[in-house]
Amino acid sequence: MADRVHPGNSPQLPQTTSSHAAANPSPRQGTYVIQIPKDQAPRLSPPENYRNYAHYTRRETRRCRFCCCLCWFISILLLLAVLLAAAAAVFYFVVRPKAPDYAIEGVAVKGMNLTSAALSPEFDVSVRAGNGNGKIGIYYEKGSSVEMLYDGAMLCNGALPAFYQPPNNVTVFETVLTGNGVELTASEKTALVKAVAQRSVPLTLKLRAPVKVKVGFVKTWKITVMVVCDVTVDQLTAQARIVNKDCSYGVDIL
Q: Where would I find the Late embryogenesis abundant protein LEA-2 subgroup domain in this sequence (predicted)?
């Protein structure tokens, strides 16, 4: 009698898989595979885009650094300006600087022969300089210039003496102004003769003097003082008397 073959005891045959299954093994449990059509797949940017991005990024970084440096520089300048303003305020309240005052005290004229074709005048001028500062001295340096003019025409010129003016001091110094071969136009000479006859001769004195200011032990750089005086005399002789005078002054710190 033939033996029965039970299904449970039958030998296991090897499982066969299709080529598709072998090429695409089943994903592991918990993972997902998403298939995207080729025409919808994301594309990588070309290499030149990366280079451009890196270039612009470096440029923006440099720009930010420049802006930071500029902000620091402006901040330092503002701080220096504040410190200078504070120092100037302290200097003003401690020293109390006052502007010097100038005036013409006397004028003596020689050699103004109005009948001559050319004039060789000499003006002896006394100038009063007042320094009303209690803590500031003034050094009048060499290199000054003084001119005497009539109606814009220069009659003579000269220079001031060099000297030191201490605080709270008034100094009257004399200077001799000379001219040689001065020729006036016919209209200028006619007007000058008329002014002498009316005993009112308008003249203009222009003065430029380099000075140094001393505060304590500190002496400043050279500062040019410019003085303009309108003075009217009654005659052009050694006995000339001042009828009217008015002086103004300015400073050139360069």
A: 127-227
Give 17: exposed, middle or buried? Use CB within 10 Å, 0-12, 13-18, 19+. Answer: exposed
Give CA–CA dist 54/88, Å, rounded.
51
At the top level of CATH, the class of 101-252 is mainly beta
Residue 129 tokens read as 């300089």
Q: Quick one: CA torsion of 199, 204, 210, 211, rounded to 10 degrees? A: 50
Block mean pLDDT (10 aa), the chain, length 254: 47 47 53 60 54 57 74 85 72 65 93 88 94 91 95 93 92 93 91 94 95 86 92 94 91 72
pTM for the full predicted model: 0.63
Query: What is the SS3 assignment for 212?
Result: strand
Q: Which residues contact 166 (CB under 8 A, 6 or more apart)?
A: 131, 137
What's the CA gap between 118 and 219, in Å, rounded? 45
Domain ranges of the chain: 58-95, 101-252
Amino acid at site 187: S
Burial of 108 (0-12, 13-18, 19+ CB in 10 A): middle
CA distance linking residue 206 with residue 152, whole number of Å: 11
Q: Which tokens is 59 given?
A: 């440029």
CB neighbours of residue 99 within 10 Å:
13
Instruction: Tell which residue, 97, 112, 147, 150, has the closest CA to residue 127.
Output: 147
Instruction: Provide the 8-state DSSP code for 1.
Output: -
pLDDT at 6: 47
